[in-house]
Amino acid sequence: MAPESGPQWGPKNSHTLLNHAIERVDGPAKATGSAKYTYDMRPPGMLFGLVLHSPYAKADVVSVDLTAAKAMPGVKAIYSIGTKRLNYEGDPVAAVAADTPEHAEDALRAIKVRYNKLPHAVTWKQALAPNAPKVYDSDGGVQGNLRPGSTSGDSDAAAAALKTCDAVVEHTFTVTQQHHNCLETHGLVVDYRGGNSAVVYASTQGTFTIPGESAADLGLGGDNAVTAIVEYMGGGFGSKFGIGLAGRIACTLSKMAKAPVRLMLTRPGEYLAAGNGSGGYIKVTGGATRGGKLAAMHAVMYRLGGLGQGSLAGLPYIYNAGTFYREVSSLHTNQDGSVALRAPGHPIPSFAMESMMDDLAAKIDMDPVEFRKQNTGDETYHRQLDTGARAIGWERRNKAPGATSGYGPDGALKRGMGCGLATWGGGGGPQCQVDVFITPDSAVVVQVGTQDLGTGTRTYTAAVIAEELGLPVSAVTARIGHSNYGQANASGGSTTAASLAPALKSAAYNAKVAFLARVAPVVGAAPDALSLANERVFVTADPAKGLTWKQACAALGSTGLSAHGEWVPGLSGNGVHGAHFAEVEVDTETGRVRVIKLVGVQDCGLPLNRLAVKSQINGGMIMGLGMALLETTVADEATGNMLNANMEEFKLPGSMEMPELVPIIDDGDTRNVVIGMAEPANIPASSAIANAVYNACGARVTDLPITPDKVLQALGKVHAS
């Protein structure tokens, strides 16, 4: 070992743990149910909180009568927002905390509210209609319900360029608001009993986003007044930063009762009031030359973020489009405001852009893969397209959309293939503080306040330390999810691994240097002449001369040792690519689509855990399948209510929808740095599935999800033409 060399990852093929498949260290705890989530916390004397939500998309609260509810058994705290305007179904009206969930439910039912229901707009059609009800009554920045955003390019030049193209395609793509569907709903357990401090158990993507906000709502002084604990959390997908609506209400109730309060949103509350993922409306015209150049594009894009701004990446997305123009605005509706949802702003533009690419390729009679290569100069995409095409068997695809002969009963079944590309950042920053402790009894503990969203952070936190010290992963205990531990960034944008891994490597390296310095006299060699491997410390030039790990630790003395690590430049990078391929079967009599196979190719620099990376690719493909075929917000224009605010009718992919999944790590990526890769794996699967449906039967469905009725309507247009 050469201490002066500093922390380095070393060659990709030299690792004993990293870049290999590592079983999750928390797998047994999760499988046996011993893992403690926020929902499981039960501090003594805990009360149960519930929220009364607005049943209307827009209404004025005329009066709230809490008299009967206050008198109900077990009620310890109750309050209302008073008279105000409600702007979405789910807007909070009142909240209660009682000694049992049943008493809280009884009290909620006893609250008497008088509403004055007002006209609403809950779909993009309603919001764009002439004389549509205004979502924002007095916001000078909104024209009708449109909040103008940005423009790029020259509209007239794009229109003129389109006239010179050999092939032109025009479509309007629409996708409703999406939902996160976290198994553990949003909420906190606030353990405040009066005094100057509190403990907050949080289901959050950011341990350190909790103390300050909680302290402010509890009226306590400073971040240190509140300790946040995030042992395990049941999914966030971009929606769980800070204490949120449920957390603010929980803090208020706990402060009123001077008792611990658990407030986790109900499942309907989760759909209506926990934030949602932006939908999109994209009207786009694209043109190509006969030689395969994407020559012109004109796009009008509306972000459907409810009361929020929404998010859409701009077209032409990752492609070079010659002359283009786009304008991006927010179209408001009376629905809860959007928040980040896995790869925020990317899947919907990808769906629109990749659909346009396949339609244009068909019009100029060019292979869609070759058309993509001609219109992106990034060679990484070329490599990933070739890899994915081999894995799916691209040579078997229909050479023209719908050209295949049918099979099965009445020849109604047709197969097709499609593809799509993705891009993302995934870089990190200097925010993490890691400590490593080695004790005389040979225990190794790594400690940092980061959170594990279920992505495997706990596992690679232990693995980075274990590899540096020549130990198995099981020999290292990872302590995470506590605001009294070292600082860490919130998990958003796939930035956790790229931020945390360098600090882990630094701490591991410093621990190794300190450890070898302490045991070198015992071994009888200089520290830089020693190595650590296979749970031994030994002389590098004479491996037989050394100590076992336990023997060496015993030589540390009674205090053991500790080491600290922080961000080190050069150990992480930024910028990833992805290519997805899909094969589907379409029943042209019923319109039913069945996904046969999905292939996902993804780069990420140095994979910390190949098992977890493949798991993320699989998860992304499954989420893409859900977006493509199943998931939608059904908003009733007449009543303003969401009709499927539950996990039974908000359809998610289940075991019966699972296709063959082929996750491929792009080992052609030679960058020896850690880059986040989880979110981009969620981007192009829906695009690839939509294109596969088009390739199978020639029907272009422009509104997700691709349900049987839409397939049949599109087929009807094909047959009519």
In short:
With 721 residues, this protein is α+β, with helices and mostly antiparallel strands. Helix content is 27%, strand content 24%.
Topology of helices and strands:
Elements: H1 27-32, E1 47-53, E2 59-65, H2 67-70, E3 75-80, E4 85-86, E5 92-98, H3 101-110, E6 112-117, H4 124-128, E7 146-153, H5 155-163, E8 167-175, E9 187-191, E10 198-202, H6 210-218, E11 226-229, H7 244-257, E12 261-264, H8 267-273, E13 279-288, E14 294-304, E15 323-331, H9 347-363, H10 368-374, H11 379-392, E16 413-424, E17 434-438, E18 444-447, H12 457-468, E19 476-479, H13 496-523, E20 530-533, E21 536-539, E22 542-548, H14 549-554, E23 561-565, E24 576-587, E25 593-602, H15 610-629, E26 660-665, H16 685-697, E27 703-704, H17 708-720
Parallel strand pairs: 1-12, 8-27, 10-11, 14-15, 18-19, 25-26
Antiparallel strand pairs: 1-5, 2-4, 2-6, 3-5, 7-15, 8-13, 9-10, 9-12, 13-14, 16-24, 17-18, 17-23, 20-21, 21-22, 24-25
Q: What's the rounded overall pLDDT mean?
A: 97
Query: Based on helices, strands and strand pairing, what is the structural class?
Result: alpha+beta
Number of continuous helical runs: 17
What is the share of helical residues?
A: 25-40%
Radius of gyration: 28 Å
Main sheet properties = 7 strands, mixed
E-strand count: 27
Q: Low-confidence parts, pLDDT < 50 over ≥5 residues?
A: none
Overall, the morphology is globular
Please report which band the strand proportion falls in: under 5%, 5-15%, 15-25%, 25-35%, 35-45% or over 45%: 15-25%
What is the topology, as strand order, of the major beta sheet?
3-5-1-12-9-10-11
Give the N-to-C terminal Cα separation: 73 Å
